[in-house]
Write a structure and sequence with these properties.
Radius of gyration: 16 Å
CATH topology: Jelly Rolls
Helix content: under 10%
CATH class: Mainly Beta
Order of helices and strands: EHEEEEEEEEEEEEE
Largest sheet: 7 strands, mixed
Number of helices: 1
CATH architecture: Sandwich
Distance between the termini: 18 Å
CATH superfamily: Ureidoglycolate hydrolase
Number of strands: 14
Number of domains: 1
Strand content: over 45%
Structural class: mainly beta
Length: 162
C-alpha cells in the first residue's frame, strides 16, 4: 500500500486541478450598501455543449484518517463544485491525468469554510467529509449522456494527516 500525507488546500497548490472557493484576502468589492463583501467569479464552471448547470445536495458519511483510497473518478464533460454546508474540515483528493488513467494522487485538507471547483476531466476521490454533517451543495453538469469514469487503485493509497 502506498502512503500519502495531507497538505493544506491553497489556491496555488490546487491550481492544476481546479479552483479553491473561500474568502481569503479582502473581498473584490462591497455590495448591498457596503454591508456584504463579494469575492467575485471564483470558479471556472464548464458544462459542455450538451449539458447545463445543476445544483444538488449531497449527504456523505464521514470518514477518518488514515483513509484507504482505492477509487478515483472523473467527469469528462463538466466541472464539479463542492461547497460544504457546515464549517468542518474535509478531505480533497485529486490526481493528475495521464491520459487513460490517473497519476499519483494528492490529498488536501480543506479548512472549515473552503469549497472547491474541480476542472472538467480532473481525477478525484469520492466526497470525503471528516466530520458530521457531511452536507455539501454540489454544482455540476446535468445532461442526457454519461459523465463518469472510474478507476480502481490496486494497491490502495493510505492517506495520513500531515
Amino acid at each position: 500500500m502506498h502512503t500519502i500525507r495531507t497538505e493544506p488546500l491553497t489556491p496555488a497548490a490546487f491550481a492544476p486541478f481546479g479552483d479553491v472557493l473561500d474568502t481569503s484576502g479582502p473581498p473584490d468589492r462591497l455590495i448591498n450598501r457596503g454591508l456584504c463583501g463579494r469575492w467575485h467569479d471564483r470558479a471556472r464552471l464548464d458544462f459542455g455543449a450538451d449539458g447545463r448547470a445543476g445544483l444538488s445536495i449531497f449527504d456523505a458519511e464521514p470518514r477518518s484518517l488514515p483513509y484507504a483510497l482505492d477509487l478515483l473518478e472523473r467527469h469528462p464533460d463538466g466541472s464539479q463544485a463542492f461547497i460544504p454546508m457546515a464549517q468542518v474540515e474535509w478531505l480533497v483528493i485529486v490526481a493528475p491525468d495521464l491520459g487513460d488513467h490517473p497519476g499519483t494522487p494528492r490529498a488536501f485538507l480543506a479548512a472549515p469554510g473552503q469549497g472547491i471547483n474541480l476542472h472538467r476531466g480532473t481525477w478525484h476521490g469520492v466526497l470525503t467529509p471528516l466530520h458530521t454533517p457531511g452536507l455539501f451543495a454540489v454544482i455540476d453538469r446535468i445532461g442526457a449522456t454519461p459523465n463518469l469514469q472510474e478507476y480502481s487503485l490496486n494497491p490502495a493509497y493510505l492517506i495520513h494527516a500531515a
